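Reply to dn_fold:

You asked what the input looked like. This is it:
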Amino acid sequence: MRGKVKWFSREKGYGFITDEQARDHYFSVQDARGANLPASGDHVQFQSQDTSRGPRASGIQLVARSEEGRRGDDRVRCGHCERKMVPRIISYQGVVERSVCPFCAETYRDFMLPPSTPLWRWVALVVFVLVVFIGC
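and this is what came back:
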């Protein structure tokens, strides 16, 4: 019988396979054949057994890996040290200010100003608001 892994937890050691008739089959790590454990979305071949607790899959063999289960490298490259990294968020009093490289601590992205807005426009806006509303 063939099916698709609906859900599998490596930490807990069990998961569920949905067969071609949309029935869910329980399986554990001991039911998998070979060194490769299935992941969520993988296509598998298995034998179905009816137990007192419901359908159970055994003799699970991996047929094809899922494209959705494959993850690329989500890291970005630091412009200063050129290392691949996951930026760290810096906030002050609940306001996100910027993200930094965890290796060299250089700013990766500044969230206080939009990147396309020149600083002089923000200064002009602040001055305008002060003049109009406060009357300075």
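Residues 119-134 form the longest helix (16 residues).
Hope that clears it up.
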